[in-house]
Amino acid sequence: MPTIEPTKSKRILIVTHYYPPHTGGIEYVAQNQAKQLAALGDIVTVVTSRVSADEVSHTENGVRLVRVRAFNGFEKWGIPFPIFSPRLITVLFRTVKAAQVVHIHDAFYLSSWCAAIIARIYRRPIVLTQHIDLVPHASRLVKIIQQLVYGTVGAVIFRHSATIIVLNERVKRFLVDQGVDGSKIILAFNGVDSQLFRPAAPEEKKIIRDKYQLSKTKKIILFVGRVVHKKGFDKVLAAASEQYQLVFVGGDFGPNRSLNVRCLGKLPQSQLAEIYQAADIFVLPAHSEGFPLTIQEAMASGLPVIMADDDGYAAYELDQNLVYLLQQRPSSEQVREAIQSLLNDDARCQSMASQSLQYARQHFVWQRVADQLDQIYAGLLHAQHEVV
Q1: Which domain holds residue 266?
Q2: Which of 19, 125, 156, 235 has the smallest CB count inside 10 Å?
Q3: Pair (234, 165) in one structural domain
Q4: Does residue 199 have a cis bond before it (omega within 30 degrees)?
């Protein structure tokens, strides 16, 4: 049978529980994958949820976006789990049948379960990006639900996925512990839009600060993430000081508590990129992450980064010269000390900012990510043709 070349047009279906304008790492990863694959010449369809009025089905940048109405009431309790209408089944039967490869984002969600089952019916190869493992949660019920999902339908998706992409070694170990064959697990980085997320010139920085009414005199410490415990937003908030201004983006953090704490809520990517440019230091003491997209965006914006270490990040080869690594699950006092340490060391800040930018330009390139995905799809289709 003829080999399918990586550059030959392929019909790809991407399934994700959320998609922009809903904000979050998985959403933007799925969006950029779709856009880059379409730019390579693939025929890309995305099936996702519609959880607000401004989310509509359309075609953009060569990507056909199909939205299915979903109930999203659990998100206000920190549980991002949309409940799709029954129409999801008919949409997936149609789109899976038309696709050659089905790419699912994370096995935890209802859309993923349905897509995997229908892909098996039509014998379409499944590529799974498993973003996270078990997430620690204050609710015992949520912990039990996670274990139940990954032990049942999640295990089925893991078993029947032809390739599983992970972002760090910890997720890989989790999958292997679940009985997944390690040979089909691939470690891969995500990308960043380097045209959008970039450093700002000093004069540009001043203009942006004026635009968002941020401090003109104090250093700005930026946190970007959802209002969930694992992101560590509470530890950053507890580290507030009159010596600098904390800026929070990504969720409903409540009213501004003082001139030293600004909460900007959820912002579209274009405005978020400007906030990175206005900032001086980025801090994210998160745990149980794949590898936070916000860290990648901050590095691409040329910011020194304070982050919690994780034994799953070994492949990223992070060290204290590149980023300020806190211990896993740091205290708010340790977060405060890290901020103060960088503020008192301009030379280290400048060195970290320069190395962050260089690292991002070297490792977080969407075109490289898309090329790797295209090779994976081509390999699966070639293997499928060989079997036939």
Answers
A1: 202-363
A2: 156
A3: no
A4: no
